[in-house]
Amino acid sequence: MTSRSTPSRLPAAAQATFDTAALDDGQLVTLAHGETRALVAPHVGGSIAAFYDTAGHAPPFHWLRPATRAALDARDPLGMASFPLMPYCNRIRDGRFRFEGEMIDLPSGTGALRHALHGHAWRRPWTVEARTDSTLTLHFLHEPHAFTSSHGPDSHAGTGWPFRYEARQHLTLDASGLTVRLWARNLAARPMPFGLGHHPYYPRPSGTRIAARVRAMWEIDAEVLPVSLNAHPAVDALQAGLLVDDFDLDNNFSGWRHEAQIEWPHEGRRLALRASAPLDFFVLFSPPGLPYFCAEPVSNTTDWLNLRHAGTAQRIDVGGTVLAPGETLETQLAWLPERL
């Protein structure tokens, strides 16, 4: 149904067999409530390493795909359970965009990776600011030009994100589930474009379904960049409850109603994903043959900064925002487990 390039999403660590023993790691912060646990890896991009239920399960039931030993050793966020997306979500075409008359040139790779991906906050460590047994606050500070590209010797070393900002994640584990509150503030002396979200991976046993109400889907080109916003069979299938194995997707959906239901009928489990504005967009990544899929709450469509400059935003809502100096942005998402 779509043509896409997937190497950037499928590192070796992410393809490895799930290894729950890997989670016995002293660098992980454990949140606990009753029989539920959430493990967080501040040093791996402020990622969530696992979210699971130990009640009546040996091994535990994992609501998100748990991190592998290889991913933890490599500090690879793509092998985590979920990681934060800032200051934009998904790809920026050729790692470049124009903002207020200035061409911003982002560090990026080559070939299929020449499109800057998921911002930079997921590639850097976050600082533990506060914690209790069931809550954790992480802090991130971006200083322009303080970091170089992490894509390797063949990378295009752009000047990077020129706007100074800070961000926080506040995670709470309670009887309802795991909530993540995202917060960011523009510390620059000029306006800053900004987008945010989270990138969760879910286990995908046979029969896994996902349901969500969306309005339309962005068709993509061979490099997973948006071409046009249209009706699509996946839109109707999502409303009815899409069988994940029936669709090969890496697409952004607009008009998301801020809720999705993921169901594992053979396990008798269901997980509600709920979010608040401006997480008005939804990405579904369901490549065939892999033991996981992604359903991502995000505040902007792929390449929104270039679509905005091209005037697409005048006709179609592509999301994202512009923060004035000192202005803040806050949102939250939650994973709420249920038994069928």
TrEMBL record:
Q: Which Gene3D superfamilies match?
A: 2.70.98.10
InterPro entries hit by this protein: Aldose_1/G6P_1-epimerase (IPR008183), Gal_mutarotase_sf_dom (IPR011013), GH-type_carb-bd (IPR014718)
The record ties this protein, via SUPFAM superfamilies, to:
Galactose mutarotase-like
Entries under Pfam families matching the protein: Aldose_epim (PF01263)
Put simply, this protein is called: Aldose 1-epimerase
Query: What species was this sequence derived from?
Result: Paraburkholderia unamae
